[in-house]
Amino acid sequence: MPVDKKELVPFIKEALTKAKKRNFLESVDLTINFKGLDMKKPENRLDADLTLPKQVHRLPKICVIATGDLAVAAKEAGVNLVLGKEDLEKFGVNKKEARKVAAENDFFIAQADLMPLVGRFLGPSIAPKGKMPKPGTGIITPGVNINSLIEKLNKIVRINMKKDPILHVKIGDRDMREEELAENAAAVINFVEGRLARGKQNIKSVFVKTTMGGPVKIEI
Questions:
Q1: pLDDT tens readout for residues 54-99
Q2: The domain defined by 5-56+155-218 carries CATH number 3.30.190.20
Q3: E-only strand ranges, the chain
């Protein structure tokens, strides 16, 4: 049975209340611990981009890999970095720079016909971080509205669990309303539950906390 966002509000409120005020904007994070999963089996690994109901990111750093009009549109949209074909080829001999680009950007958007080069030269650095461009959210073709895609990325979180039976996901920032955070949290929990062989029975525990605050266990 899906988790109701209203059930999560008290836990979100407790996590926000018990956390001390900081001189920076803390994120609010969800941690899900799993049980009964053999992580050696591919079907038990999670790797997906999930669009949440409410905005999660504030000005995420986006790298667009494109040429021509798409590159121009990306620059006009004010993305963090725009790379072309020659830039990708340079990563073949400068792997340190490739790793730096991978670390400094949250999302990567690539022109469809450049994906083979992305996979070859940048893939080794961004794939392990779950940042490879995906259809629908990261692979683009001429005529796409870059600004609309950026707005969509503001609501996307990565559901990535490959080695250990634990998942950490940002669901928003501390200055968001409790109801908004609860709505995002419910979306994550329900998505994950739907991907598990035994559903909720594979979930051991769920916690919510701010960046520096203590964890609060969510009863689901």
A1: 999 877 899 999 999 999 999 999 999 999 999 999 998 899 999 9
A2: yes
A3: 27-34, 46-51, 62-65, 81-83, 107-111, 139-140, 156-161, 166-173, 203-210, 216-218
